[in-house]
Amino acid sequence: GAVVSQHPSRVICKSGTSVKIECRSLDFQATTMFWYRQFPKKSLMLMATSNEGSKATYEQGVEKDKFLINHASLTLSTLTVTSAHPEDSSFYICSAGAGTPPYNEQFFGPGTRLTVL
Amino acid sequence: AQKITQTQPGMFVQEKEAVTLDCTYDTSDPSYGLFWYKQPSSGEMIFLIYQGSYDQQNATEGRYSLNFQKARKSANLVISASQLGDSAMYFCAMREESGYALNFGKGTSLLVTP
Questions:
Q1: CA of B43 to nearest chain A CA: how many angstroms apart?
Q2: Are residues B51 and B61 in contact, defined by beta-carbon separation less than 8 angstroms?
Q3: How far apart are CA A53 and CA A34, in angstroms?
């Protein structure tokens, strides 16, 4: 199957700093990427849908200014957690649709575990 | 309203036995897709199987099969001949015609015992 990478896999930062997470589709072009957040022993919650070359669509309750998403190319989307606080600590996972919409397969990155001290 | 319901928070199965993980869904879209993912303790989401709403036959992928009952709006995952490595969280998800993103259930934790 298609491969999606995420970097970094784990990050620890101080409160108030910003953290950037990269999501790359390695062997296919992804016009649409998705960002999810997962709390321990909980389900994945969609944060936003990222379309190449346009603004991301955020889910209700997700702060746009807090979680900046950029999808500058067909293989790269980034999520920046600005002025991170301990409550932002979570597991962040991206996914990319493979093939033609509406994507009968979605491939997930390995996730990024963010810990804010 | 919850669109995907997984009523089994935890399941046990003995090695080599079959196990069924339940999933019911709620949608008014005529076209939708149903997915199952496995999430081991490492956190990665592993795609297992997909069923389209118009597919006539139940999807199968190796030891995984999807028992799709459209009228009941259920999409249960059947794992045959369980292996110790099958121990993980399992998530059912749905993509509706109106969107590309996946709505996930709360997951079922499966433990395979020797």
A1: 7
A2: no
A3: 14
Q: Which of A11, A60, A108, A113 to mutate to test the interface with B (most CBs of B within 10 A)?
A: A108
The closest CB to that of B45, out of A93, A104, A113, belongs to: A93
Query: In degrees, to the nearest 5, what angle opens at C-alpha B49 toward C-alphas B47 and B51?
Result: 130
- Cβ within 8 Å of residue A37, ≥6 positions away: A44, A45, A47, A90, A91, A92, A93
**Is there a contact between B93 and B105 (Cβ–Cβ < 8 Å)?**
yes
Separation between Cα atoms, residue A98 and residue B95, nearest integer Å: 14
Nearest Cα neighbor of A36 from A22, A51, A46 is A46
- Residue-wise pLDDT for A55-114, tens only, equals 899 999 999 999 999 988 889 999 999 999 999 999 999 998 766 665 667 889 999 999
- Is residue A88 within 8 A of residue B24, CB to CB? The reply is no
